[in-house]
Amino acid sequence: MSRFNIEPKLTENAKFIASKRYLKIDDDGNPLETPRELFARIAKFIAKAENELSDKKKNYKKLTKNEIEKVEDAFFEIQANLEFLSGMSLLDRGKEDLVAACYVMPIHDSVESIYGTLANTTTLHRRGAGIGYDWSEVRPEGTKVKSTGREASGPISFMRLYDFSSETIMNRGSQRHAGHMGILRIDHPDIQKFITAKQDYTQLTNFNISVAITDEFVKALKQDDEFSLKFDNKIYGKVNAKNLLRQIITSIHASGEPGFIFIDEVNRHNPTPHVGKMTATNQCGEQPLLPYEACNLGSVVLSKFFISNKSTKIEDKIDWERLEYVTKTGVRFLDNTITVSNHLLPDIEKIVKFGNRKIGMGVMGWADLLYLLEVPYDSEKALELAEKIMKFINEKSREASEELGRIRGDFGNFKGSTLDKQGYKNMRNATVTTIAPNGTTSLLADVNGGIEPIFALAYIRKNMETVGEDTEMVFANLLLEEKLKKEWLYSKELMQKVAKAGTLQEIKEIPESIKKVFVCSYDIAPEWHVKMQGAFQKYTDNAVSKTINLPESSGAEEVEDIFMQAVKENLKGLTIYRDKSRDKQVLSIK
């Protein structure tokens, strides 16, 4: 009998996602494996890295066949139990040619750099990777080019070139819609053009865009002072900092973009400043990276660690011992992923495999865990628990990486890193924690993505990736159904009301005690969204991907308040979205 005998408990929606995106398929798109076989295949492939390390650590003792099988069993178990998932490994579909999901690529102020990176980008995009770029080194529009005597077209023109290229090449038959993150510093002379670049919905359709906010700008903002727009040490003009922020806010209110990257805060936590500064992030903003670096991410499914008991202490309802085991096993899994991956370009392999070996252990199912614990998302108790859980995961991830460093060897740039200076003797990975959105991976575990609150207790999700734009899946919250049944409140008529409203707040038949716990994204005041992001960011090495969802009726002044709170909370990134500010959105209430 096979050692891999755990049958994953997938919902019908999860089975659909697995068949469309993750299971090995034949030429006609028919599944060639079951979800159990999927996790077994991944476990065996990722475990191949166990004995591919002796060249980096001379005294590394190779594992026996029995020891390798134990590692395979551990990797299979945490996936099949839906306690840990890594979207990157799931997407391999049996090809054993694993490529990271996201990268950052360099853009310098020359035709050679811009078109050279475009060629490399094409290689990555064809494999479904998302890519982030900082366009701040590209000279502003209208600047004279000495070599030709002509005027420069500016960074936005080249972003359009990249957008057109990706539309032409990358998304035909890909397993995931690979896109771009375009970043421009707040002090770049073309910043005002950049802010409004996506207000025409037909432009830059494959780009997310974010403004890199500096400490200098925040200082000018607080002092209601003028702020210099400059390039190559030349000041091109001055603007009032508050007026510039209001331009950004107006655009966010209208279209949901741009987002914010607090770039100086990012670099205050850069583990390898001796290697270089970080100026860009991956496509969703949760992973600041150096040029050519990649994301290697996975997440523990928090709701799986809930224990039902009679204790009055919330902490007693979490299986900390199991959470530690899954976290440490997941770190080993992610480190192995780096070893077995195809890095596609020599510059990527140099920094990802031999330089920094960054990984990002994150979480999903946070909102589900709070429902199980009957703790309101918008409460001090939830914030305290968020800090405690993320601190625990970060510490255990670091312990696992330290042990791997002792056994396998440290990441190449360890000497001179902040970890080296903090007194660590060994470390396998420059970073260990990141909170990703997990938009599709979370559907496999039937939990909410990342640390987001539930969008609605019944809603439609449109899959805008390879499932097809016309595919709509209806979701109703099973934990709410269970609670209503337990309280003898459940009826089909009541659930129809919930499905119509999406939220419980206006339904008279539901007691206040249940309404308080089963809150949705739009039930929660914006400041609580930001506080929650701050609580998790406090103990996360990289960044936290989270969207601050605002009701359609929200005003621009609310967006400004959220920005200032994000600065206060020391966030590394911020995304704000007002409901229905775009014609198409991934989530909508049924």
UniProtKB/TrEMBL annotation:
SUPFAM superfamilies reported in the protein's UniProt record: PFL-like glycyl radical enzymes (SSF51998)
UniProtKB keywords: Cobalamin, Cobalt, Deoxyribonucleotide synthesis, Disulfide bond, DNA synthesis, Nucleotide-binding, Oxidoreductase
A molecular function GO annotation: ribonucleoside-diphosphate reductase activity, thioredoxin disulfide as acceptor
Required co-factors: adenosylcob(III)alamin
Example GO BP: deoxyribonucleotide biosynthetic process
Documented EC number(s): 1.17.4.1
One Pfam family it belongs to: Ribonuc_red_lgC
Ribonucleotide reductase large subunit C-terminal domain segment(s): 100-577
Catalytic activity: a 2'-deoxyribonucleoside 5'-diphosphate + [thioredoxin]-disulfide + H2O = a ribonucleoside 5'-diphosphate + [thioredoxin]-dithiol
InterPro entries listed in its UniProt record: RdRp_reductase_class-2, RNR_lg_C, RNR_lsu_N, RNR_NrdJ/NrdZ
Domain Ribonucleotide reductase large subunit N-terminal: 9-85
Family per similarity comment: Belongs to the ribonucleoside diphosphate reductase class-2 family.
Primary role: Catalyzes the reduction of ribonucleotides to deoxyribonucleotides. May function to provide a pool of deoxyribonucleotide precursors for DNA repair during oxygen limitation and/or for immediate growth after restoration of oxygen.
The name this protein goes by in its record: Vitamin B12-dependent ribonucleotide reductase
Source taxonomy: Bacteria, Candidatus Dojkabacteria
